[in-house]
Amino acid sequence: MEITEQCVVALTWTLKDTLGEELDVLDEPVEFLVGGNDLLPIIENALQGHCAGASVQLQIEPEQAFGDFNDQLLFLEPRHLFPLELAEGLTLEGSALPDGCNPLAAKDALYTITDIYPDHVVIDGNHPLAGIAIRIALRIESVRDATQEEIDRGSCGTGFFKVQMANDDDQPPGSLLH
């Protein structure tokens, strides 16, 4: 079956930066809805017309994926506002930031704890891959028709990348989830 809109693809991949440093590897196939909200548009376009067993390689610039790095999304917050068990790499919703944090930190954003010092914590509202051109080697493991439920939902329940939330105890801090 050839990949078209409203089908489901099972993908594996290796993601590297432009210097060749491996950023993420997905060894076990994960299903994504093509024509929904699961994949970046540039990846969906590159997959069109391919079949199971094909490999696709792309270089994706920041503006095609996770945007440029914005230093206005970095905030230095007092350490005493956060719990003692705070860990670097943990991601918090803006609405869950403690009272007393900078009011310019948007409540509808995700913030990653990037540094913890004795007196302050650095939180970053940029996506972990913001500002990075990435190279992705995709392998199409299978293709199938999407169910009506998947089409209605616009997803197979996975996204291209999801960052760990503070209440997700199943993964170590800083993990990229699939």
Structure write-up:
The chain is mainly β and 178 residues long. The protein has two domains: 7-66 and 131-158, Roll (Chitinase A, domain 3), CATH 3.10.50; 71-124, Thrombin, subunit H (Beta Barrel), CATH 2.40.10. It contains two helices and ten strands, in the order E-E-H-E-E-E-E-E-E-H-E-E. The strands form three sheets. A four-stranded antiparallel sheet has the order 2-1-8-3, covered by helices on one side. It has a four-stranded antiparallel sheet with strand order 4-7-6-5, with no helix packed on it. The longest helix is centred in the first third of the chain and has 7 residues, at 41-47. 20% of the residues are buried. The model is unreliable at 161-178 (pLDDT under 50).
Quick summary of this structure?
This protein is mainly β and about 180 residues long.
Helix/strand layout:
Layout: E1 7-17, E2 22-34, H1 41-47, E3 55-60, E4 74-78, E5 91-93, E6 110-116, E7 120-124, E8 134-145, H2 148-153, E9 162-163, E10 176-177
Antiparallel strand pairs: 1-2, 1-8, 3-8, 4-7, 5-6, 6-7, 9-10
